[in-house]
Amino acid sequence: MSFKDKVVYQIYPKSFQDSDGDGWGDIRGVIQRLDYLHELGINYIWFNPMTVSPQRDNGYDVQDYRTFDPRYGTMEDFEELSREAAKRGIGLMFDMVFNHTSTEHEWFQKALAGDEKYKKYYILRKGKGPGVPPNNWQSKFGGSAWEYVEAWDAWYLHLYDVTQADLDWTNPEVRRECADIVNYWRSHGVHGFRFDVINLISKRSFEDDPNNYDGRQFYTDGPMEHVYLKELNQASFGQDEDHLTVGEMSSTTLENCVQYAGEDSNELDMVFSFHHLKVDYKNQMKWELQDADFMAMKKLFTKWQIGMQEAHAWNALFWNCHDQPRSVSRFGNDDRYRRESAKMLATALHMMRGIPYVYMGEEIGMPNAYFTDISQYRDVESTNIYKILLDEGKSKEEVLHILQERSRDNARTPMQWTSGKNAGFTQGTPWITMASRYEEVNVEKERAAKDSIFAHYQKLIEMRKTMPLVQDGLYVPVLEEHESVFAYKRVLGDEELLVLNNFYETPADVTIDAKGYTVLLSNYADTAVQDAMTLRPYESVVLYRRNA
Ligand code: GLC
């Protein structure tokens, strides 16, 4: 199947639409909103995990891979969703969390009870001494990555929360179980899969991190990664003509990604990499703020666009997901230029080579949640880091400010449908506080606005679906040295696009060879094409020409 004309929409199910008043989004709620998604024009919906989980990490701590948490609904609800989505030409993509399970998972529970078979499903090691873990690795959510279990007199590895125990992929049984889970969902009509932190499954070794950090060099893109992915592909989704797969690749490299998502590598269809979203991390540290390094971001886009294109590999394009603060607040201006900057970011991304992902609410320019009290946060990473940063001596105000900028909960508040009670998300009490500006920013208001962000997304999606130039055109960087404009061309045969994006509020001058160009899309009504152009605040324009 060619997937080059597709656009994926990500739903964080807990926060999309509640249909029964329990304050949680659910499958029936999604069914109610399918027409909305159909109007937007997307082809696939990726759902974050909806199966049984203690919800320590909102479903990424899987207790049961095959049963829906009843708060989301039942298999019958899902089947109805699947039928209704198919009627609208929408496919479904499920999230497979295979690096770890919840410690409440039956496998872990059996292991705890002493079952030798299941002990081998996890990564257990002896400590260096009494009370001393096997190595100094830190969990990605803070604290040691190891937890001691007295019954085993051994420690288990958890790269994430202490309730998320890493699976041992060197064990063929584990690999078979994972393929079986994919096959289970295939047998229920799911042919799209997103694989959670899938480049962490092959651990290289278990030595101390010399930098006293999280140990990532010992478990990222490990030696057996490509072998495991090929095996999983063959044993499951690779048997489907029409599969669509994406791997979430943590701190990965281009060299590995060209293989993960290479046309002929029989691993995955595309990858999420995160380098372009770390440009506002000071010294690579997520919890240290700095303004986005725009030049670094441009360089990263160019590197990945060209690197992947030369190797015939495919990128997933995204600004937002459930783990990232909202892009309009982060790289745009969510106040005075909310519409302009939201559209600019959309254009800059959607016209690149790859498959765009739209995260719920992005299409109406939802800003960060801007919580003001720690009690409003639900995310385990945020609540952990809050304590850690306070312990390090930062003031409460400082830490709350950092969370307002960086917390994953910024993206996890309920979808804003209306200006009414709880933004039309639920009749009950939402599981998490609503974001502060829902009365002003919501689907109802946005769609009623002249030149809405929603309509802009509709156009971009339509262009992806209908224009081979957008799907297949060669990516060519231009104006590489420009300090406020991100620009590139797409070229296919005699057709050409020139995409110019001013990432700042300050007007930006650019010089182009304007001959033959017409404006295909702009976020300002009256963009005129000429050799010397001054792009207004966050102005973004797509120019088209056919070369003689
Ligand atoms: C991925 C998920 C994130 C989760 C983590 C552990 O990064 O996107 O939400 O916390 O993996 O499963």
Structure description:
This protein is of the alpha/beta class and 548 residues long. Helix content is 28%, strand content 18%. Strand 16 and strand 17 form a beta hairpin. The longest helix is centred in the middle third of the chain and has 17 residues, at 294-310. The model has no long low-confidence stretch (mean pLDDT 97). Alpha-D-glucopyranose is lined by residues 57, 60, 97, 160, 196-197, 248, 322-323. Alpha-D-glucopyranose binds next to loops.
Short summary of the structure?
The chain has helices at about 25-30, 35-40, 75-85, 105-110, 115-120, 170-185, 225-235, 255-260, 295-310, 325-330, 340-350, 380-390, 395-405, 445-450, 455-465, 470; strands at about 10, 45, 90-95, 100, 125, 145-150, 155, 165, 190-195, 245-250, 270, 280, 285-290, 315, 355-360, 475-480, 485-490, 495-500, 510, 520, 530-535, 540-545. By secondary structure, it is of the alpha/beta class. The strands form six sheets. An eight-stranded parallel β-sheet has the order 11-10-9-3-2-1-15-14. A five-stranded antiparallel β-sheet has the order 16-17-18-22-20.
Number of strands: 22
Strand content: 15-25%
Count of runs of 4 or more consecutive helical residues:
16
Corresponding CATH superfamily of the domain at 1-92 and 317-466: Glycosidases
Architecture of the domain at 1-92 and 317-466, according to CATH? Answer: Alpha-Beta Barrel
Helix/strand-derived category reads alpha/beta
Biggest β-sheet: strands ordered side by side in the sheet: 11-10-9-3-2-1-15-14
Give me the CATH fold name of the domain at 1-92 and 317-466.
TIM Barrel
Shape: globular
Distance between the termini: 33 Å
The main sheet comes to: 8 strands, parallel
Low-confidence stretches: none
Helix percentage range = 25-40%
Mean pLDDT: 97
What ligands can be seen in this structure?
alpha-D-glucopyranose
